[in-house]
């Protein structure tokens, strides 16, 4: 697509019913159908890094299936994300299920390739291990990035069974590697039992601030979004959403569920409150459809990815407009 051409949007639901045909995210064109894209939605079918229930390797396709019902206009952000910028489904990154190190390298390499085209990534996991190679790739382009991490868990543990690359450890590795801007790191939705108090002191030393799920309930979504926006400022921002940030009532289909989580409404509202942030890429991980019912989890995930995609599209359009005005 040249910069003057209008983006190619989703399949017209008034002509082809939404339940027909193979699924792409939001029924958008595949990347090979449009040549290049501003936002690449990409799946990572990988779950070898999990410590409890497996199955997130099927998450990306479950989210694609559940996203058939998304409509092209987003009233909450007053934007038509797929008209403002080209958004396309880039398919899946093939990752070795029997070798975590090799898989981590493959994800980093594929992310490098997509980012080098100028696209931003909306990655659908996969387990949380994949956030590390994605952050490595984003940091090569933008330098250390601010991180907003929505999750029941800290994911800053050191190792599991001696393994460094797991779904409970990506953000400790990322801090060690210097790819995060440690003045702007926040967990949101944290809750549940830990291995010890040390988990919290270690996490704080790495620079993380914590907004617990109880904080969200007590202080409300607007105040939380304001606080996060202030902390992030205009830094390049990466958002990583582990779907287990939601209460198991809102997201049963996940591998390490914890009671007392956010509602899908709270998550979506906080994301909308971040629409002015400079979102350079995002992931949504840990959807494990085998434990889901009636697509509860994958529908919630598809809507969260839709809000993130809208934020990116609006910014891409605004940047283009500013450039054209010059
Ligand atoms: N769901 C993610 N990313 N991490 C959970 C790790 C929790 C544990 O095994 O103790
Ligand atoms: Zn988690
Ligand atoms: Zn996680």
From TrEMBL:
Q: Does the keyword Metal-binding apply?
A: yes
| CDD domains per UniProt | Agmatinase_PAH
Keywords assigned by UniProt, alphabetized = Hydrolase, Metal-binding
Task: List its EC numbers.
Answer: 3.5.3.11
Name the domain of life this protein comes from. Answer: Bacteria
Tell me if Metal-binding is a UniProt keyword of this record.
yes
Please name the PROSITE patterns in this protein's record. Answer: ARGINASE_1, ARGINASE_2
State one molecular function term (GO). Answer: agmatinase activity
PANTHER family xref list: ARGINASE/AGMATINASE, GUANIDINO ACID HYDROLASE, MITOCHONDRIAL
To which protein family does this belong? Belongs to the arginase family. Agmatinase subfamily.
What is this protein's name?
Agmatinase
Please name the source species. Answer: Streptomyces durocortorensis
User: What lineage is this protein's organism placed in?
Assistant: Bacteria, Bacillati, Actinomycetota, Actinomycetes, Kitasatosporales
Task: Provide the gene name from the record.
Answer: speB
């Amino acid at each position: 697509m040249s910069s003057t051409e209008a983006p190619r949007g989703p399949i017209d639901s008034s002509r082809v019913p939404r339940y027909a045909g193979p699924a792409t995210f939001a029924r958008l064109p595949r990347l090979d159908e449009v040549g290049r894209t501003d936002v690449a939605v990409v799946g990572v079918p990988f779950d070898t890094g999990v410590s409890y229930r497996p199955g997130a390797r099927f998450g990306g396709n479950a989210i694609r299936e559940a996203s058939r019902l998304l409509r092209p206009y987003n009233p909450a952000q007053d934007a038509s994300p797929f008209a403002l910028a080209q958004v396309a489904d880039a398919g899946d990154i093939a990752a070795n299920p029997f070798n975590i190190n090799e898989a981590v390298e493959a994800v980093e390499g594929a992310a490098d390739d997509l980012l080098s085209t100028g696209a931003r990534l909306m990655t659908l996991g996969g387990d949380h291990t994949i956030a590390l190679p994605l952050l490595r790739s984003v940091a090569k382009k933008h330098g250390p990035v601010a991180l907003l991490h929505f999750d029941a868990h800290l994911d800053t543990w050191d190792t599991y069974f001696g393994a460094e690359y797991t779904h409970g450890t990506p953000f400790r590795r990322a801090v060690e590697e210097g790819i995060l801007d440690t003045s702007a790191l926040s967990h949101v939705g944290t809750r549940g039992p830990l291995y010890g108090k040390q988990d919290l002191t270690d996490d704080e030393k790495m620079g993380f601030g914590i907004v617990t799920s109880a904080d969200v309930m007590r202080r409300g979504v607007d105040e939380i979004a304001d606080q996060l926006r202030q902390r992030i400022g205009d830094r390049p921002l990466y958002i990583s959403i582990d779907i287990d940030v939601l209460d198991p009532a809102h997201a049963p289909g996940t591998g390490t569920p914890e009671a007392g989580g956010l509602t899908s409404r709270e998550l979506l509202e906080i994301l909308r409150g971040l629409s002015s942030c400079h979102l350079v890429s995002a992931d949504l991980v840990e959807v494990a459809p085998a434990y889901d019912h009636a697509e509860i989890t994958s529908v919630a995930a598809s809507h969260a990815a839709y809000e993130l995609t809208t934020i990116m599209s609006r910014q891409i359009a605004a940047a283009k407009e500013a450039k054209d005005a010059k």
